[in-house]
Structure formats: C-alpha cells, structure tokens
C-alpha cells in the first residue's frame, strides 16, 4: 500500500513541478533544469509504479503456484491408496449374488469373476446332479472364478428344471458381475483337449445373446445328467449372460471327454474375453454394448 501511494504522489509531483518550471522559465538553462527535474521525478515515479505492479504479479503467481502444488499433492494422496485397502480392492472386484426361486427350483449363486491374486479361489457346487456339478466346477476352475452355487430342485421329476434353471441363474450372475463391458478385450477363443477329445469355443461379450453349440454327444446320459441337457445348459447360460458363443467339439470318442473339453474351452475363452485391457474404453464402434 505504501509503495502504491508513494508511486502515485511521486508521479503527480513530478508532472506538476516539471510543467510549472517549463511554463515559468521557458526555454533556457533554468527551463531545461525544470524539464530535467520533470523527467527525473517522472522516471522515479514510473520506476516505483512498475515495481509495485511487478511485486503484485509475483505475489499472485506465488499464491497460485502454492494452490497448484496443494491440489497436486491432494490428488496424489487420493490415488496413491494401497492396493490392500478395501476401497482400492472394490474397484477391482467383479462380484454378484443371485437368488432365483420358482415352484421347481430354489437356487443361490455367489460369483466372483477373475479372482484377485490376493484372494484364494473357492468353488463349491451342489445341484444334486453329480455330472452337472463336475461341469460347473470345470467352468469356474478354468475361468478363474470363485463360485458358490446351490440348488434344491424337483429331481423326483427329472433333471430338466435343475439343469436349466441353474444355468440361467449362473448366466444372470455372470452378467451382473461383469457390469458394463468397459475396458475388456471383449473377444476370446480357446481350444481345449481332453485326451482324444478336442473342443473349440469362441466368445464375444456382445450384449446380444446367441448360442451355437455342437457337442455331438451320443449317449443317453452321463451319470444322472441326460446328454440332451448338456448343450441346453450351455445355451441357457449364454442367453442369460447376454453373450455370443460358438462351441464345437471337433473330435472325440468318449462323451464324458467331449462334454468336459467343451466346458473347459468355454471357460478359457470367457476368461480371455473379460480380461482387462487397462483402458476405460467400450470395445465397440457403436460406443455401447
């Protein structure tokens, strides 16, 4: 404030004295002296004035720089959260819980896609149909899921409702756990052998359910699961998950091997399709899936 007042007063006095000296004495040594005084005082005032402006600008710049540094520090602290904290871990988790109850089945599914490296994979299946449990276990194991699935169904009638409804519930859980298909590869494929059998699965996390399943099974049943229900389980899961899948068994003599290689190939293909890319992009030219 003192610098502002001093500069202003100096400027006024310099102008008045120089003007008075020039008007009173006119041209000549004394007039020149007055003019020189005017210039000297005016220059001093200008110097003081510009020093005041520069000081204000520098102070403002220092203040803004301090604000920027503070904001940067806060942002760094915000995003530097350890991976072990619940908030950081939740951003990586893809989980779902689905309960589906009808007059025919009572099902509960707990699913985590892509089990974290810090979390032990756990699988617990109980549908009441041994071979169906075996297939779901293979799907979860090779898909790197943690899966808990239980079903109480009307097995006194047959295996249809239990097999179909568990596949629907699992597909619903998959879709819920995946959420918006952002930052994933979207496409996946795999070949999986089991001894003489070889299966191929191709997956598109498209948001459009479409299933092409060709297992070429010949037996009437494997254990307590009728073979006609095995492709139907895959179709029901794919439809409820809202994805496009082609599953083909290319060769094989043993129906157990053919079916199991198909589930394993599907698991590996899905695992690739939902793998994170590190981006936040939706992998579609439409911008939505």
The mean pLDDT is 81
The helix fraction, in percent, is 40-55%
Beta fraction: 15-25%
Please mark out the parts with pLDDT under 50 across 5 or more consecutive residues, or reply none: 78-91
- Number of DSSP helices? 7
Largest sheet: 4 strands, mixed
Rounded to an integer in angstroms, the radius of gyration calculated over CA atoms is 39 Å
Tell me the total number of β-strands. 10
Structural class: alpha+beta
How are the strands of the largest sheet arranged? Answer: 1-2-4-3
The rough form would be described as globular
What is the chain-wise order of helices and strands?
HHHEEEHEHEEEEEHEH
Gap between N and C termini:
63 Å
Task: Furnish the topology, listing elements before pairings.
Blueprint: H1 2-25, H2 29-79, H3 86-90, E1 95-101, E2 105-112, E3 123-126, H4 130-143, E4 146-153, H5 160-178, E5 187-194, E6 197-204, E7 210-214, E8 221-222, E9 225-226, H6 229-241, E10 244-251, H7 255-273
Parallel strand pairs: 3-4, 7-10
Antiparallel strand pairs: 1-2, 2-4, 5-6, 6-10, 8-9
């Amino acid at each position: 404030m003192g610098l502002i007042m001093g500069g202003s007063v100096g400027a006024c006095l310099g102008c008045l004295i120089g003007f008075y000296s020039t008007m009173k004495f006119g041209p000549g040594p004394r007039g020149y002296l007055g003019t020189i005084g005017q210039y000297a005082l005016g220059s001093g005032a200008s110097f003081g004035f510009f020093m005041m402006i520069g000081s204000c600008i520098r102070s403002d710049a220092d203040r803004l720089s301090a604000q920027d540094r503070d904001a940067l520090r806060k942002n760094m602290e915000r995003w530097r959260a350890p991976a072990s904290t619940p908030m950081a871990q939740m951003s990586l988790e893809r989980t779902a819980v689905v309960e589906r109850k009808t007059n025919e089945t009572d099902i509960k599914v707990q699913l985590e896609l892509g089990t974290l490296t810090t979390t032990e994979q756990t699988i617990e299946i109980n549908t009441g149909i041994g071979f169906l449990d075996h297939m779901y276990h293979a799907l979860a194991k090779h898909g790197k899921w943690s899966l808990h699935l239980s079903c109480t169904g009307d097995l006194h009638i047959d295996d249809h409702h239990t097999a179909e409804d568990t596949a629907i519930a699992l597909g619903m859980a998959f879709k819920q756990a995946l959420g918006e298909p952002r930052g994933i590869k979207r496409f996946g494929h795999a070949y999986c052998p089991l001894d003489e059998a070889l299966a191929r699965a191709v997956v598109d996390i498209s948001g459009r359910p479409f299933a092409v399943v060709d297992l070429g099974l010949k037996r009437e049943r494997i254990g307590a699961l009728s073979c006609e229900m095995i492709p139907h389980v895959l179709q029901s899961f794919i439809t409820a998950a809202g994805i496009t899948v082609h599953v083909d068994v290319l060769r094989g003599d043993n129906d157990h091997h053919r079916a199991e290689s198909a589930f394993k190939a599907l698991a590996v293909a899905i695992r690739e399709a939902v793998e994170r890319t590190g981006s936040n992009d939706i992998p579609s030219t439409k911008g939505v899936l």
